[in-house]
Amino acid sequence: MRVALDATPLVAGTGGVPRYVRELKGALEALDSGDTFDYLTDQPVPGAIGPRNGWLDRKWWLAGLPLALRRERFDVFHGTEFSVPYVPACASVLSLHDLSPWMDTAWHGTGVGRVRRRTPWLLRLGLATMILTLSESVRKHAIERFRLDPSRIVAVPLAASGSLRPVPVAPPQEPYFLFVGTLEPRKNLPMLVGAWRAVRARHPVRLVLAGRRRDDGPQFQPEDGLELTGPVDESKLAALYSGAAAVVYPTLYEGFGLPVVEAMQCGVPVITSTDESVVEVAGGAAVHCDARRPEEWIAAMERILNDPGWSSGLRARGLQRAATFSWARTARETLAVYRTAFERFR
Q1: How many CB atoms lie within 10 A of CB 75?
Q2: pLDDT tens-digit map of 116-136
Q3: What is the pLDDT of residues 134-181, one digit of tens each?
Q4: N or C: which terminal CB in the chain sees fewer CB atoms within 10 Å?
Q5: Phi/psi of residue 34, each to 5°?
Q6: Helix (H) or strand (E) segment spanning residue 77
Q7: pTM
Q8: Is 209 helix (H, G, I), strand (E, B) or coil?
Q9: Mean pLDDT across the stretch 193-212?
Q10: Given pLDDT bands bounded at 50, 70 and 90, which one contains residue 238?
Q11: How far apart are CA 148 and CA 42, in angstroms?
Q12: Half-sphere CA count of 227, side-chain side, radius 13 A
C-alpha cells in the first residue's frame, strides 16, 4: 500500500497532534512492512507532497486533495486531525482525537468552528472508511454521539517518545511540580495555580508550566516560585520530567493524555484528574483528583512532599504502566486499520 498522512498539523510545530503525526510516520516506516508512507498537504511543510498550484487546488479538501491522491496513486489517506477528503478518491482513515469540539465552546477559540461543523457530516455520510480514536473511552462516546457502526471505529493508543527515559539530574535547589502541555482553557490551570499557592504557603516548592500558550489560554502575572517556560525542546524534556517531584495534570477532558504516559516513562509520580480517558490511560498507576476540587490537589501535592515511600511506589507503578505503550505497537495497530480501510474501499 501507499499511504498518505495529512501533514497539515505540522504547521503548528509543537503540541500533541504534530507530535503524533511525526512519531507515527517514523514508527510506521520502522515496521519495514513493504508499504510506503508520505506526507501530503497544501501547507508549506518540508518534505511533503503538495498541490501543483492549479486553480482546483485552492479548494483543497473538495478538489485539490482528491486530485493529488489520484495523481500520486495513493491507496489510503490518513486524515490525522478530524478530516478526510469531501470526495472519496481512495480509502480514508479519520483521526478523531477527542470530542472536545462538541462539548464546551469555552474550551476552544474560533478556529475549531470548522471542525465542529464539518467532521460530523464526514462521519455520518461515511466519507471516512475507518475512524481512529486514542482511547476506548472516546471510541465509546463517539459511537453514541455520531451513531457510528462500531466496526468502523478502532481505538489505538499513543505512546511516549523513546527519548523520554529517567535521566540523572542534580537535585534542584527547590523542588518543583511540573505541568507539560498546551496552556489552554481545558487544562484547568487557574485551579492548579491556586492549589499550588496553598501548598507553597507551607512548603518551599515551585510550579513549572511547560508548553505553548494558546491565544485563549490563561495568563498569569509573575510571582515567586511560578515559572512559565514556553515550549520545551525535546532534548531537554526528559531532564525536566526527571527532576520533578511530580507531574500535575488537572485536565477537564482528554482524548488520551500523553503527558501522563511521558511522565510515567520518566519515572515521575503523576497527579491527574478523574477524566475518563486519563483514568483509562493511567491504569491505576496515578493519583486521581477531582479537577474542580482544589483541596484534593493540595492534599495530594503535600503528600508527595511529605511521604517519600508513597512517591517511590507511584514511580515504580508508573514505569510498569508506561512499558505497556510503545510507538511500535501504535504503528502496528494503525497499519492494521489502514489495511482494513483498503480492503473495505475496494
Answers
A1: 19
A2: 889 999 998 999 999 999 999
A3: 999 999 999 999 999 999 999 999 999 999 999 999 999 999 999 999
A4: C
A5: 90, -5
A6: strand 76-79
A7: 0.93
A8: strand
A9: 97
A10: very high
A11: 30
A12: 17
Do 215 and 147 meet the contact criterion of CB atoms below 8 Å apart?
no
Displacement of CA 254 from its chain's centroid (Å) = 8
Give me the pLDDT at residue 110, please: 67
Backbone angles phi, psi at 94, to 5 degrees: -110, 125
Please state, as a whole number, how many other Cβ atoms lie within 10 Å of the Cβ of residue 77.
Answer: 29
pLDDT tens track for 91-111 = 999 999 999 999 988 888 766
Domains of the chain, with CATH numbers?
A: 2-159+326-345 (3.40.50.2000), 176-322 (3.40.50.2000)
Rg for the chain, CA atoms, rounded: 21
Grid cell, residue 189, equals 490551570
- H or E, element range at 227: strand 226-230
Alpha carbon separation from 67 to 56, 63, 127, 336 (Å, rounded): 9, 6, 16, 26
Residues in contact with 67: Cβ distance below 8 Å, sequence separation at least 6, in sequence order: 54, 56, 57, 89
- 33 CB-near residues (< 8 Å, 6+ apart): 335
